[in-house]
């Protein structure tokens, strides 16, 4: 940051110019070529659309380093900034992404970072949303002298490189966790290969399984604001086998009370019965009285270590078994009777506890949003955004 201050004092003490995007980069939209999915020939070259790589094809139309900006469809992020993709090498770009190349008066990578701070909500139009070329060209960004741009890029590239390394490590740790989870739950580590050391029971034998069925479903008229009724858990509440209680749905107390068999408690397991089949979570630290929506099944009164059951159900073998009983239709689902009949290996309680202890340590590293790698990545993202905003805030030259 001190180097940036010195460079600004040296090159632009009176402020910096703000220029339209068309003045600082080449816009190559006229060279784009869309290809219908059925006519694409598979290959090694990335085929880009509005929100990134859509496919790989056997030819390319651009060769270099480019900044892609979503034109229609996926064009605006939740923070109202444009959807950006950095692309390098031999690529194909369709007509859903603007393609920008570098000019001599600006560093393209600097433009990439500067656009991450621009609110484009007032120039995105229509349904589906569109950022047309005229509005794209009119976007103004600060353009300090090249030495200042390069130093800002160097600093921010270091931040993004660190975040990328952490994300790569997280992905590797997740794969390691899944490998050891599936090894532990295959019971090959037990004497005799596991066949005589575990008892196989159906889900229906080890838990009460309930769903919201028939007239007990609910409509929009049953939904209320937070604080006016019970929490109604949905598939969207399940994130990384845990429950996120933010952005939840609520139903009237009357609707909650009419179905005591699906009242949720800590220690229960919820499982997606339709849609995202097999997505599941162990209920923990329930913030208030809760029920489930028709997408979910609820496992209650579990007759084994509930964390052990949750780990087994997220494993490869159970998910394969679950896939075999999916129904056929536009929205796939599983019948409760077939779900009840799925088999679960039940070792001794001591072994269940040992497996849970091992997997808890792995999972804490890969999923814990307060102490694990996700927490560190989130902190680095916040740090990056803070310094990016600080570095890209300039006094406008009069």
Structure in a nutshell:
With 398 residues, the protein is α+β, with helices and mostly antiparallel strands. It is 34% helix and 23% strand.
Features:
398 residues; Adenine-n6-DNA-methyltransferase TaqI, Chain A, domain 2; six-stranded mixed sheet; four-stranded antiparallel sheet
Give structural notes.
With 398 residues, this protein is of the alpha+beta class. The chain folds into 3 domains: 1-16 and 145-191 and 348-398; 18-143, Adenine-n6-DNA-methyltransferase TaqI, Chain A, domain 2, CATH 3.90.220; 199-346, DNA methylase specificity domains (Adenine-n6-DNA-methyltransferase TaqI, Chain A, domain 2, Alpha-Beta Complex), CATH 3.90.220.20. It is built from 12 helices and 20 strands. The chain has helices at residues 2-11, 21-24, 108-115, 133-138, 146-184, 203-206, 253-257, 306-314, 316-324, 336-340, 349-367, 373-391; strands at 17-20, 25-27, 42-49, 52-57, 62-70, 84-93, 97-102, 140-143, 199-202, 208-211, 223-224, 230-233, 238-239, 242-243, 249-251, 269-272, 280-282, 290-292, 296-300, 343-346. The strands form 6 sheets. Strands 2-7-5-6-3-4 form a 6-stranded mixed sheet. A 4-stranded antiparallel sheet has the order 10-19-16-17. The chain has a 4-stranded mixed sheet with strand order 11-15-12-18. A hairpin with a 2-residue loop joins β3 (42-49) and β4. The longest helix is centred in the middle third of the chain and has 39 residues, at 146-184. The radius of gyration is 27 Å and the shape is elongated. Residues 189-195 have low confidence and may be disordered.
């Amino acid at each position: 940051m001190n180097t940036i201050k010195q460079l600004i004092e040296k090159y632009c003490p009176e402020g910096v110019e703000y220029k339209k995007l068309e003045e600082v980069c080449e816009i190559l939209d006229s060279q784009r070529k869309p290809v219908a999915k059925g006519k694409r020939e598979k290959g090694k070259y990335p085929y880009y659309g509005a929100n990134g790589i859509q496919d790989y094809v056997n030819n390319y139309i651009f060769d270099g380093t480019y900044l892609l900006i979503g034109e229609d469809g996926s064009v605006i992020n939740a923070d109202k900034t444009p959807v950006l993709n950095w692309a390098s090498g031999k690529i194909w770009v369709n007509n859903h992404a603007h393609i920008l190349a570098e000019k001599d008066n600006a560093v393209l990578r600097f433009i990439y970072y500067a656009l991450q701070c621009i609110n484009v909500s007032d120039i995105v139009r229509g349904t589906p949303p569109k950022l047309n070329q005229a509005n794209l060209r009119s976007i103004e960004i600060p353009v300090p002298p090249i030495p200042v741009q390069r130093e800002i890029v160097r600093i921010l590239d270091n931040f993004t490189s660190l975040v990328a390394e952490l994300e790569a490590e997280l992905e590797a740790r997740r794969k390691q966790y899944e490998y050891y989870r599936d090894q532990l739950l295959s019971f090959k580590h037990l004497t005799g290969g596991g066949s005589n050391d575990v008892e196989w029971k159906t889900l229906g034998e080890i838990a009460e399984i309930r769903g919201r069925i028939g007239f007990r479903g609910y409509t929009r008229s049953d939904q209320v604001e937070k604080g006016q009724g019970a929490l109604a858990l949905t598939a969207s509440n399940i994130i990384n086998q845990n429950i996120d209680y933010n952005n939840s749905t609520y139903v009237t107390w009357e609707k909650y009370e009419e179905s005591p068999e699906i009242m949720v408690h800590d220690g229960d397991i919820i499982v997606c019965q339709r849609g995202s089949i097999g997505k599941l979570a162990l209920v923990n630290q329930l913030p208030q009285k809760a029920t489930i929506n028709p997408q979910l099944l609820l496992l209650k009164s579990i007759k084994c270590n509930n964390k052990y059951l949750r780990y087994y159900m997220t494993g490869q073998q159970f998910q394969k078994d679950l896939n075999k009983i999916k129904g056929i239709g536009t929205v796939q689902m599983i019948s409760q009777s077939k779900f009840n009949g799925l088999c679960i290996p039940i070792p001794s309680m001591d072994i269940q506890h040992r497996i849970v202890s091992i997997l808890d340590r792995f999972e804490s590293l890969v999923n814990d949003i307060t102490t694990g790698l996700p927490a560190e990545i989130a902190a680095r993202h916040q740090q990056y955004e803070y310094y990016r905003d600080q570095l890209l805030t300039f006094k406008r030259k009069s």
